[in-house]
Amino acid sequence: MAKKQKILESATKLFMQEGYGRVSMDQVTRESLVSKATVYAHFKNKNELFVASLTYYQELHQIKAPIFKSKAAKNLDDLYFSVRDYSQQAYDYYNTDAIVNLYRILIAEINEFPELFEMFFGNHTGITKTLSDFLGLLPEKIIITKIIVIFWLVRYWIWFVVQPFGLSS
Residues 142, 148: contact at Cβ < 8 Å? Predict the structure, then answer.
């Protein structure tokens, strides 16, 4: 096994178990059975190793965030099926041990690594733009539909995204 691979495997295991703050480069060196010079030859510092470890973890567990497939919604049924399909993808995505472990570490380290938010949580504007465009086309007489859709989206966000991480009240 290549040394860089051994370092990544060891560091990933340590970071996922202990978090960034409690892992030292010495621990990574001991766990991967390589010299400290070898670790630093592949990763210039602990931050770089941490980000590489999180990326490796995603690849190892084949983690891919759900994607909202934007269709031109012509009626409420189109919108419903698009949101439903996205919601099922999101539910399946957030309900895996690999994601819960990854997000637990990311949330714990977000203050130290604000760039991780964009890198791992990504840009989820696709669903927002599609819904906004569609709702803007609806006649005023069905404004209640807009309110119901917005309410449903807020509930979805709390149920699938916030609640699993203990962030809701």
Answer: no
Q: Is the pLDDT of residue 125 over 60?
A: no
pLDDT digits (tens, 9 = 90+) for 34-68: 999 999 999 999 989 998 998 898 888 887 766 66
Alpha-carbon torsion angle 131, 125, 107, 164, nearest 10? 20
Structure tokens at 102: 């990854």
On whether the CB atoms of residues 75 and 84 are closer than 8 A, the answer is no
User: Which one of 1.10.10.60, 1.10.260.40, 1.10.530.10, 3.40.50.620 gives the CATH number of domain 3-60?
Assistant: 1.10.10.60
Write down the mean pLDDT value for the chain. 77
For the chain, the distance separating the N- and C-terminal CA atoms, rounded to the nearest angstrom, is: 47
Separation in Å, CA 156 to CA 15, 50, 70, 128: 30, 31, 18, 13
